[in-house]
Amino acid sequence: MAVEGQTKEQKERSAVVKRARQSQWPAIPMDEALKAIETLARKFQPESKCFPVAALQPGRVLAEQIFAPEDVPRTRTSIKDGYAVIASDGAGKREVIGFSTAGGPSNQTLKPGQCIRVSTGGVIPAGADAVVQVEDTELLKDDGENELVIKILKAPSVSQDIREKGSDVKLGSLLLDVGCEMGSAEIGLLNAFGIQHVEIYRKPRVCVLSTGNELVEPYMPQVPLGHIRDSNRSQLLALFRGQNFKAIDAGIALDKVETLEYAISVASQFASVIVTSGGVSMGEKDHLKEVLQDRLNLKIQFGRVWMKPGLPCTVAHGSIADREVVVFALPGNPVSSWVCAHLFVSPLLRFSAGLSRLHATKIRVKAAEEIKLSPRPEYCRAWIDMEKGGDLPVATLTGNQISSRLMSLVGAQVLLILPQKGQISDGSKIKEKIEAGEILDAIVVGPI
Amino acid sequence: MAVEGQTKEQKERSAVVKRARQSQWPAIPMDEALKAIETLARKFQPESKCFPVAALQPGRVLAEQIFAPEDVPRTRTSIKDGYAVIASDGAGKREVIGFSTAGGPSNQTLKPGQCIRVSTGGVIPAGADAVVQVEDTELLKDDGENELVIKILKAPSVSQDIREKGSDVKLGSLLLDVGCEMGSAEIGLLNAFGIQHVEIYRKPRVCVLSTGNELVEPYMPQVPLGHIRDSNRSQLLALFRGQNFKAIDAGIALDKVETLEYAISVASQFASVIVTSGGVSMGEKDHLKEVLQDRLNLKIQFGRVWMKPGLPCTVAHGSIADREVVVFALPGNPVSSWVCAHLFVSPLLRFSAGLSRLHATKIRVKAAEEIKLSPRPEYCRAWIDMEKGGDLPVATLTGNQISSRLMSLVGAQVLLILPQKGQISDGSKIKEKIEAGEILDAIVVGPI
Lengths: 448, 448
Fold this sequence. Notes:
The structure is a homodimer of 448-residue chains. Chain A is of the alpha+beta class. The first copy, chain A, has four domains: 21-46 and 203-352, MoaB/Mog-like domain (Molybdenum Cofactor Biosythetic Enzyme, Chain A, 3-Layer(aba) Sandwich); 51-68 and 176-201, no CATH class; 77-163, Molybdopterin biosynthesis moea protein, domain 3 (Molybdopterin biosynthesis moeA protein, domain 3), CATH 2.170.190.11; 362-444, MoeA, C-terminal, domain IV (Beta-clip), CATH 2.40.340.10. The first copy, chain A, has eight helices and 31 strands. In chain A, the strands form ten sheets. The first copy, chain A, has a six-stranded mixed sheet, with no helix packed on it. In chain A, strand 28 and strand 29 (429-430) form a beta hairpin. In chain A, helix 3 packs parallel to helix 8 and helix 6 packs across helix 7 (288-295). The two termini of chain A are 63 Å apart. Chains A and B meet through strand 9, helix 4, strand 16, helix 5 and strand 23 of A and helix 1, strand 9, helix 3, strand 16 and helix 4 of B.
């Protein structure tokens, strides 16, 4: 058969005959895959920039240590609304010689038998060594406008209701550390000290590319037979954006080696982390591993992982046009790509964001029902109920866990970590299932 | 004494003589305060608007039920890369008559002894009733380009590796419900069905006002004696923004009744929820309750709550210039205002955002150390450690819990709910403290 006589489609199909009928990639265990990710992560050190505190939003990550530029409080202040007194005067009458409010300090000096009215946060006047709250006093004499004499009902003790200078924060003490995630309290703290600018980490950028001849844009009015709308891209973009990363839409690439090579090369100009979905399994159109390895000359760190859902999950690392990149080639099934994004991509991005903690939080939960174990370790999507009996949250599977079933992700709050069948054995018996009520580790992936 | 002869300052101080020396407001119990908030919340029903799915970001809340506009999959598709076969043909040889890839369906009909190559997601051709994965086949004959004859190694069963039409989602079934918070999975799902627009709830708006003569803007280069920088405002703005609400900066108001009245009136034009801090305690400059009740004619729902930190927390409701408003007048201490914002303001805003769950998540934790109980129920800030022994997270207090100490909020992940001293008694003994290792409820307030 003359090669000249072949149509383009025929040429492509010719590869089918030569394809491997078993995957050439060993399925590595999860802990090995995660270790590879951690090693890779260290190559993508976070970058920092100077940022105005006035524009800081929750979720940014601090890239410097912040030390207190002054004592808090700066002077002795009152904890209560009441009277600054000399403690050794005891209970009884006091002449009121003035007032010291927050924002209106007194410059008088207290002598025995005298007191000065103070409000919460007001500066303690010279000579005073205690505050008596207004509730513990009586007004004895006034001139119709001002208090002249009051009675202290209970003898005060020295330092009572006084915030000493530097008692909350000492000048020079560490306020916030590198890697600290800015929340409302941290932003308030920076403002309390009048800090105007801080060094924060840049948000890591990640490019999201969908691959597949069968994909159409979700806004297309008609979807031809055999085609589906591309939901992976919007899903992954939202996933990364929800985690405070900068996610860039790289579109859809057709299943052709040249197209894939070009699309990934373009993506590498926008981000050093590239996430694709589809094209990594055993299908005749699954060219991604070949493209990554042979055309882009990246080193495939792993080409399969012994887990579910996401067996063909692939990670490659290297340089494209002198830019260091990592490509996460996730499986095309929407559930697999979502789970693998959480397990593999997010930890690397978290590191690159400057967060001190690489992995998502794990909690312990109780299985609501019996769950059959799979030959591979499995990450099942589950809802949790905090109120349902006992001290631990109760986890219920989000229905059928088949990897095409996008509905199994809806509202999912955790990924239950299930061991593979038979992995845990008690003596002679092989473990086939998780019993209802059994305690499991779970990775938090949604609002709990 | 002629009133004409008084300076303005003297006139103001004249009120000091007449001030109550005990709070006139009963300190209501927490459950009563929360019930009042829930009743109020129902007056601030969420509003919805039509929104393009392409612009949806995580955190928005759905205001309509979404039903599946089609079956998923729309036709029978393959779960694996392999061959569509007739199951009753059993194991053995098959003639390969064509191919059906995702995006390239076949229009051939299978006859006994024949098979059609399929890829994952590819349409199952007419006549076929099972898929055999490529790993379970051998190539027997080819013409150098195309597969001609293969061998099925293991007899397939009917329906094997076929996703039936509608097996993931049935046409017309409920996909997402009202009040559902949009996450990556939900956004992906809408795109998978080609849904272009959804009705979502508007983000509730909240105006944040600081009050106090002692306050200066955080960007001021000098802070005069007796003054402090206003950190409450940036803190509360960040707190509400971090929870996906629209928070508006209403500035600082001085402690004068006219100023406070004006500032709150202006704020009411921008938002129906107004949050102030400061001016609600027993200080001579604490005019807020008077302003809310007597000048703005709002009804004070409660003027003190029997809890800590935040005893003088005040909530008022009514109309300003025909706009229904609720004013949360929080205490001025940064810790009290932060805790009260979480406990009282956020639930009302969550309701107004359309979220089905009013209150933040509670988890159960183990106390890392002994904690002394206060006469009031207390909400202590704590860090949690998920790894530290046992199934429950271990909670450690964030240092000294005094309400002025902003540092006690840094990194706080939960509010430990402590009962008041003596509230729980076992027989004759009064409970004075929480023992190390005791299990407590905790409200989640930060990333865990």
